Amino acid sequence: MPDQRHPEKAHRPDQDQPKKPSWIRVKAPTSEGYKQTRDIMRENRLSTVCEEAGCPNVGECWSQGHATMMIMGEICTRGCTFCNVATGKPQALDVFEPGRVAHAVQKLGLKHVVITSVDRDDLSDGGADHFAQTIRAIRHRSPTSTIEVLVPDFLKSDPGAMETVVEARPDVFNHNLETVPGLYPEVRPGARYFHSLRLLQKVKELDPSMFTKSGIMVGLGEDRQGVLQVMDDMRAADIDFITIGQYLQPTPKHHRVDRFVTPEEFASYEKAAYGKGFLMVSATPLTRSSYHAGDDFAQLRAARLTKLGLG
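RESULT FIELD:
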């Protein structure tokens, strides 16, 4: 319930939730693969952003044994108006969590794993060392698995937090810009657009070989020119991979859906993004940061080799 999970939104007036168009609807998850993945998550006492954020693709991804692990608890210290993850005071970090994540990755047989987290502004390093420990634990248990991290912005962390994650050598460093800068005060009030952009740029300065990735949602009130400008900003920061997906309103207390962007418009964004030099683009109504992440990583790696004349 919004008043329990989102106390900062309880006072907000209800926003109309428009009926979803045919291209955005998905079936309820029922497959055996879905149930097996769910059971492994439960056995290892792990959280997933798939559940906490109410991802529409959970049935498809879990049926294939793919899940995005969400470390450092289920409670976020931020209150973004688009997000369905609970807001409040988090619990202390679980020192055994990296090992449990690594065990689950091994048991699921994941070739590519995505690790994300809540924002932990209560921690001096924003949880960077916990990310690094998780990466190292996975490397130990599943040395052939490739690892993608979707990190917070470390805005309120001590200097060096991002560097701690980069030094642990994930294969993909992802941090989402989420929306155009003009909507930040309304959509992502605890964050700063150019700080997030600079975070990703610094990753490339530290390790030019590391893939960087970022994503935005559309349908929040932005216009096409604003989306194209974000693409230009990302390319100026040497970001390799952009994801663009439709914003879906979790509850009436969340930011309203301004409109449903058509599949044709997404195709146009994809074409524009490739034209601006991204190695990889995922732009569909149901695109999310970790949707088809494993397949996309293989294409991303192949695209770099082709660009270098080695493909």
